[in-house]
Amino acid sequence: MQASIKVLGGGGEVGRTSVLVRAAGRREAVLLDAGINFDEEDNPIYAATYPPKHVKAIVLSHAHLDHIGTAPLYFISGNPVVYATRPTIQMAKLMLEDFLKLNGPQSLYEHEEVERLLEMSVPVDYGDRVAVDDTYELEFYSAGHIPGSMITVVNVDGLRVAFTGDINTIETVLMEPAQLDKVGRVDVLVMEATYGNALHPPREASEKRLISIIEETVEQGGTVLVPAFSVARGQEIMMVLAKYDVGVPVAVDGMIRQVTEIFLENQKYIRNPHLLAKAYNEFTIVRGWQDRHRVWRRPGVIIASAGMLKGGPSLYYLKKLGGDPRNAVVLVSFQAPGSPGRKLLEEGLMPETGEPLRARLEWLDFSSHADRNGLHKVVEALRPSKVIIVHSDVDVALAFAEEVRARHGFVDDVVVAENNSEYLVSTP
Ligand SMILES: [Zn+2]
Ligand SMILES: [Zn+2]
Description:
Shape: globular
Bound molecules: zinc ion
Number of strands: 22
Strand content: 15-25%
Largest sheet: 7 strands, mixed
Strand order of the largest sheet: 8-7-6-3-2-1-22
CATH architecture of the largest domain: 4-Layer Sandwich
Number of domains: 2
Helix content: 25-40%
CATH superfamily of the largest domain: Ribonuclease Z/Hydroxyacylglutathione hydrolase-like
C-alpha cells in the first residue's frame, strides 16, 4: 500500500504551503493548502501547481494567505471542491479580496476565480469525515492556531496521512489547544515547524507585560499603539485587554473589525466568546477618518492592522504617535525580515519618513505557532513512522528533524521537505 506526497510549496520556507496527496497509480489527488509567499519587494510568489482537472478536493487548513493565496489558480481551468470550516471560508473571502486589491495587476487570478472558489466551498467541522472520489477519506480536527484552523487526516489505501497546517498546543485567551488526543495514531505526519528551534515565554507573562506597558504609558499621558495582524492576533489583544479590565480608552482599527465580526458569528471556534463580545461592545471601533483623527489624541490604547506596519491604519498612527517619547509602540506579531516592523526594531527608524522613533518600542511574543516543545508533543501524540517537515526555514527544520530522530524511537524516517519533491510512503 503506497501513496505519494508531493510538496508544491512550503519546503524549507515559512510560507506558500501546499501539499498534494495521491494514491499510488492514480492521477486524481487531494490538495492540502495552496498558499502564497512574498519576496523582499512584496511581490507574490505562488506555490507550484498540479493539473487542476486532477485535483478532486482542496482542503484549506485556515485562512492565512500563506495557506490559501494560490488556491484560486485552480479555478481558472478546474473545479475542485473546497473543504474548510465556516470561519475559514468567510475569512478567505476577506483575505483574497484584500490580496487582489493590493496586488491586482500582478495577480495571476482575478475576482472571478475567487468567487468560483467560494462557490465550490463546502463547510466542514471538527470530527467530520468526508469521502473524496472513492479513494480518499478526510477527517478534520482543531489545530489550535487560529479560529477555524484544522488538522486534516487523509485516509488513502490503508494509510493515515496527517497534515497539521499551522498548529498550536497551548491554551490562549482566544484558542483552545489543538485536539491532538482526538486524531489518534497516523502513519505519516506532514508538520509545520516554524519555531522548531525556539521556546515561547508563558503566554500570561506576555499578557502581563503588555498590561504594565499600557499602565505606565497612560499614567504619563501617552498612547500605546499595538500594530496587530487582522486575523486572530488583533482579537487576542482585544480579549487580553478585556480580561484584565485595563480601564483606559481602547480603539480598534482596520480589518481587525471585520474579522472580529466573523469570530462573533462563529463563537464555538473561540475559547472565550464572551470576552471578545465584551471587547467589541466596549471599545471604540474606528469606522472612518473622523474617528481616526480623534482616537490618537487621547491617552489610551489603539489596536490597528497591519501587524508588520506594512500600510494600513497602524502606519498612520505610528506617524502621529512615534515622535513623542511619552507614547509606546508594542509589536505583538511576527516581523518578517525586511518588513517595516523589523526595520523599526533593528534600526529605530520610522517607515516612509525615516525619522527616528522617539516613542518607547517593545516586542512581545504572542505567537500562534507551537514552539519546539509543542511540536514534540504533536509527534508524541500522533506517533507517526514518517515525518515530513514543511513551513520552516531549512536550518530550523534540520535541527528539529535531528531532535525528532533522537527523541522519538517510533519514528523511522524524518525528512526536511524540498519544494517539488515527491515522497513515497507505504505501510510498514
Ligand atoms: Zn497561519
Ligand atoms: Zn502559515
